Amino acid sequence: MQQELKKILISTYKPTKGRGGFTYATTLKEALSQHFQVDSLNLSPENKLPLYFKIPKILTNLWESSSVKSYDIVIRDLDSCLLLNKKPTKTIAIIHHIDYSFASLLVKFVFFFLTPLILRNLREVDAIVVVSKYWQRYFEKRGYRNVHLIYNGFEPSFYNLDLDEIEQFKKNYGLLGKPIVYLGDCQKAKGVTKSYEALKGIDVYLVTSGKQGVKIPAKNLELGYEDYLKLLSASFLVVTMSQFPEGWCRTTHEAMLLKKPVVGSGRGGMRELLEGGHQIICDDFNSLKEKVKYLLDHPQEQKRVGEAGFNFAKNFTAEKFKNDWLKLLFRVCGNKIE
């Protein structure tokens, strides 16, 4: 049965600006807004109150979003799949990863009970979208149907940065005179604490970015997106030693688009990205220093690995992202693409 597709709601629990899930949802809204009316709903209030003060409002927003009947399709992230819309509204779930091991004790406690309910609801949705083969296999092995792989989308031309601006960036932040090794988003889950401990004896600038979730002696910069890309481009190499199963890892992908070699843990979907781009997989922190020093001591190898990464990463275009989503939407609604 065909259903005319006009209005879409993208419902997320708490997208954090700059993180992969936020960027994916933002890119999706921009792409689909060219064809449909697309609205967004953030279930969690945008204030600094503790989580337990937000819970009533979160539940109210979740209930209201699941009761709305004016949308043809509701696209939900993992946490907002706790409640689903009734038919004829179609539901698509976007799953980046499932992991609460580095969350607060309250979040761990809450989702210990909620996760089984969410996973049960995922069997009822019209489609599950994952962002890597790792998570595609995860759901298919557990008997889930209608699992669709739609990778992150990037516009490669956006990553052509001006060399003079990069040099000025280094000067502005006191990063001249020796190589920069970027350790990633300053969060424990991203492995920055252990990465710093492994690399602290090397004569380089060890740099993290974003809100400082853990206190380590590395230089941490809170940057806008353009300056964040300048930091990546200014780096000699990038380390992404995530300690949880990633959905994909946009930092790794962006570094590859900037022709920077990546040494990464390969956890979750990140392994597909590293292997596809012929980057360096580091399975444990004990060997991290050796792998980083090898690239530092062999600039030709650093250049070769950077070029290999770019040649793979450039294939994940924003246009393909949009087209893959349009095909899925029309399939879910029973329409044909004109």
Question: Stretches where pLDDT falls below 50 for ≥5 residues?
Answer: none
Based on Cα principal axes, name the global outline: globular
Rg (CA only)? 21 Å
Number of strands: 12
Write the layout of secondary structure elements.
Blueprint: E1 7-12, H1 20-32, E2 37-42, H2 51-67, E3 73-77, E4 90-95, H3 105-121, E5 127-130, H4 133-141, E6 147-149, H5 163-172, E7 180-185, H6 192-199, E8 205-209, E9 219-221, H7 225-234, E10 237-240, H8 250-257, E11 262-264, H9 270-276, E12 280-281, H10 288-297, H11 299-313, H12 318-333
Parallel strand pairs: 1-2, 1-3, 3-4, 4-5, 5-6, 7-8, 7-10, 8-9, 10-11, 11-12
Helix pairs in contact: 1-12, 5-7, 8-11
Account of the protein in words:
The chain is built from twelve helices and twelve strands. It is an alpha/beta fold and 338 residues long. It folds into two domains: 7-153 and 317-333, Glycogen Phosphorylase B (Rossmann fold); 156-313, Glycogen Phosphorylase B (Rossmann fold). The protein has a six-stranded parallel beta sheet, sandwiched between helices. A six-stranded parallel beta sheet has the order 9-8-7-10-11-12, sandwiched between helices. The longest helix is centred in the first third of the chain and has 17 residues, at 51-67. The mean pLDDT is 92.
Quick summary:
The protein is an alpha/beta fold and 338 residues long. The protein has 12 helices and 12 strands.
Features:
single chain; 338 residues; alpha/beta; Rossmann fold; 2 domains; six-stranded parallel sheet; 12 helices; 12 strands; 41% helix; 16% strand; globular
